[in-house]
Design a protein that fits this description.
Elements (H helix, E strand, L loop, with lengths): L12 E6 L6 H14 L3 E4 L4 H4 L9 H12 L3 E5 L7 H6 L26 H18 L5 E5 L14 H15 L2 H8 L25 H29 L5 E2 L1 E2 L10 H4 L7 E3 L9 H15 L6 E4 L18 H11 L4 E4 L25 H15 L13 E5 L1 H7 L13 H12 L4 E5 L9 E4 L7 H12 L3 E5 L21 H4 L1 E6 L7 E4 L4 E3 L3 E5 L3 E7 L7 E7 L5 E5 L2 E2 L1 H15 L11 E8 L2 E8 L5 E9 L5 E8 L4 E6 L1
Parallel strand pairs: 1-2, 1-9, 2-3, 3-4, 4-5, 6-7, 7-8, 10-11, 10-12, 12-13, 13-20
Antiparallel strand pairs: 14-17, 15-16, 15-18, 16-21, 18-19, 19-20, 22-23, 23-26, 24-25, 24-26
Helix pairs in contact: 5-8, 10-14, 14-17
The protein binds alpha-D-galactopyranose.
């Protein structure tokens, strides 16, 4: 079970960040009335309130918080209490300017903003833990407080620090990992350009204007993630001492990846794994990006439930043009997160700010107030969540396809010079996820080290870096009957970001029974054909199949007759496939169709194009989420009662444009 401790609300959680310190206290009463109207039952408070609690060094005042917690409690609203360490008080910046993180050129961040602290700074840590301790001791017995929210989006601003303190901490980290300087030289391949170290003291954080070694860059990303994780754990330890019964979490930013820190490796330290997810308005497939993040969240939280801590009720404010959400999207996105395993729908933020950097970010309660389409949609969603109460103990279960994802692979891919600059780490993962999403096949997006037992199909999409242990685990899964699809750009480097020699994709060569000796990237816009009619772009390889069938070969390019897609049947009944190129949408769909047929993977239901379908179950109970993401009428096969409308459906659910249904299935 993924949740340690009690879930903060008896029902599904609904609410968002609540920042009443930005408003006079008279406004709070209106907040309570409107929160009741909307059905809010959980709010995140105090995330940026350090200067409220500690207006000057060592002077603590919690009167403001007490009044707020009492008010929320009287109104039946539970509190996800932030530790305020994301926002450094100005007096602390003045007293200790050295805590500011420094960019790769050694320029400190300016005071203001947030996360203005070096993750390795012992000075900051001391002040941070002091305020956390005072706060936790103060609220320890307050009945409103239901969970802890450590800091905010750790790494969102201070993830890679190059100050002197970080330099020392990095050297210690490297020494601990490698013990000898010879081992560092070997791991990072420092013989290249004669950059070898003769002592640990020579090692610096990889900043400034030069070309750093890929092994060095990758380890700096690991170190930076570890430094922030250390901060999280220090706060968590303290919170657990003072309030052992309250669950502790921090809000992740799990999207397509690679992420700013290594969430999959952090997740086991979360009592509830929580995420902030913002869609990008101009992306026509933003609902599928949302599903990808939800499927990742399940993958790092043992199947969930996980918590959607933040998303947007309308427009964001950091894009160049911040598109409003079209009608119905607020509801579709909220339900889509639930469908993917969240037990909450939470927003940034409750009331739109009138000042500050994010004064134009949407909120549950817009600037224009209560009589607005957003607030009406919020109250409608609140009512729907009440109707959906019975799904709370269900899980997205019985998923037959796993797709592997590892931040380290993404970090490795973006370090140093690569055959094609603009490859996004998750491009192939997203394309395959999308093809499966369109077929209503649910996918667990799992860490590369996950147990694969029970999955009918495992996809290894552009897993650029893989360790021997993980590659062996994947191979063992296939040898005992599993089917694996390995794509181009997988298994290329080991955990030191060192190329695996002897033919690509080094770590999987043996498993797939094929290898390639040279990459043939394709110019932007160029397409090549395969001899079975499929089309491909961006990438091709000079592949040799030594122990595999050739499913399709390159045709009409410089690689005519060279295997492009191969399949190695395995003794256990499974198969290991290799896809050496970037198939276009239709071709990729056909390939996946064949793989699903071969492995007997079944879709959630049959649905018209653009209708998302996902299922949550518990024992005999089963709930089918149907979301029509299109402007046209859609439909899906389903039988049962729609919890949102109480309407019965006896085989076909008709979904008017942009609408949703959640069937209690029979
Ligand atoms: C993040 C933060 C919030 C807010 C929102 C919207 O998720 O955690 O404080 O800044 O983004 O931009």
């Amino acid at each position: 079970m993924a949740v340690r401790g009690a879930w903060p609300t008896a029902a599904l959680s609904f609410g968002g960040d609540y920042n009443p310190e930005q408003w006079p206290e008279q406004v709070w009463a209106e907040d309570m009335t409107l929160m009741a109207e909307a059905g809010v039952n959980l709010v995140t408070v105090g995330v940026f309130a350090w200067c409220r609690y500690e207006p000057s060094d060592g002077q603590f005042e919690f009167g403001w918080l007490d009044r707020l917690l009492d008010l929320l409690h009287e109104n039946g609203i539970r509190v996800d209490l932030g530790t305020p360490t994301a926002a450094v008080p100005m007096w602390l910046h003045r007293r200790h300017p050295e805590i500011l993180p420094q960019d790769e050129f050694g320029h400190p961040l300016a005071p203001g903003g947030r996360l203005g602290w070096c993750p390795s700074s012992p000075v900051f840590r001391r002040y941070a833990l002091r305020v956390v301790e005072k706060l936790a001791a103060h609220v320890a017995r307050h009945p409103a407080v239901a969970m802890w929210h450590v800091s905010n989006e750790l790494g969102g601003g201070n993830a890679r620090c190059h100050c002197a303190v970080s330099g020392d901490a990095f050297r210690r980290w490297v020494q601990q990992r490698y013990t000898s300087v010879e081992a560092v030289n070997e791991a990072w391949g420092m013989a290249f350009w004669g950059n070898s170290y003769s002592s640990f003291a020579e090692i610096v954080t990889p900043g400034g204007r030069t070309a750093h070694n890929p092994g060095h860059l990758l380890d700096f990303e690991r170190f930076s993630s570890d430094a922030l994780f250390d901060h999280y754990r220090a706060e968590k330890r303290l919170l657990k001492e003072l309030t052992p019964d309250l669950p502790v979490t921090t809000n992740f930013m799990v999207g397509l990846g690679p992420d700013v820190v290594d969430y999959a490796r952090w997740a086991p330290e979360m009592d509830i794994v929580a995420n902030d997810h913002y869609t990008y308005g101009p992306d026509p497939l933003r609902h599928q990006a949302l599903a990808f993040s939800g499927d990742r969240m399940r993958g790092i939280s043992d199947g969930g439930p996980w918590m959607l801590m933040e998303h947007a009720a309308g427009a964001a404010s950091w894009h160049s043009i911040n598109l409003a959400k079209p009608p119905g999207e607020l509801l579709r996105h909220g339900l889509a997160h639930l469908g993917r395993g969240s037990n909450s729908v939470m927003y940034f933020q409750w009331r739109a700010s009138k000042s500050g950097t994010e004064q134009f970010h949407s909120a549950m309660l817009p600037h224009a107030g209560r009589d607005t389409r957003i607030f009406r949609a919020i109250t409608q969603l609140g009512r729907h969540l009440t109707r959906l109460a019975e799904i709370k103990d269900t899980r997205v279960a019985g998923v037959q396809v796993a797709l592997l994802h590892d931040n380290e692979a993404g970090w490795a891919l973006r370090s140093g010079l690569k055959p094609v600059r603009e490859l996004g780490y998750a491009d192939t993962a997203r394309a395959i996820h999308r093809a499966l999403f369109d077929r209503t096949v649910t996918v667990d997006v799992l860490p590369a080290w996950a147990d694969l037992t029970g999955y009918a199909l495992v996809v290894v999409p552009g897993l650029f870096l893989v360790s021997d242990a993980n590659a062996n685990r994947i191979a063992r899964y296939a040898e005992v009957g599993g089917t694996v699809l390995v794509t181009w750009n997988s298994g290329i480097v080991d955990e030191h970001n060192t190329v695996r020699t002897g033919g690509y994709p080094g770590a999987f060569r043996q498993l797939i029974g094929a290898s390639s000796e040279e990459f043939f990237p394709l110019e932007t816009g160029r397409q090549v054909g395969l001899d079975n009619g499929w089309r491909a772009r961006r990438w091709s390889e000079l592949v040799r199949a030594h122990d595999a069938e050739v499913v399709a070969s390159y045709a009409g390019s410089g690689l005519d007759g060279v295997p492009a897609v191969t399949r190695r049947p395995l003794a256990g009944g499974g198969a290991a496939w290799y896809l050496s190129t970037d198939l276009d949408e239709g071709s990729l769909d056909e390939l996946l169709g064949r793989l699903l047929d071969d492995t007997g993977v079944t879709p959630v239901t049959t649905a018209s194009p653009g209708v998302e379908a996902v299922r949550r179950t518990a024992g005999q109970r089963s709930y089918l989420f149907l979301i029509n993401h299109t402007d046209a009428e859609g439909s899906a096969a389903g039988r049962g009662v729609d919890l949102l409308t109480a309407e019965r459906h006896d085989g076909t659910v008709v979904l008017p444009p942009g609408t949703v249904a959640v069937l209690r299935e029979e």
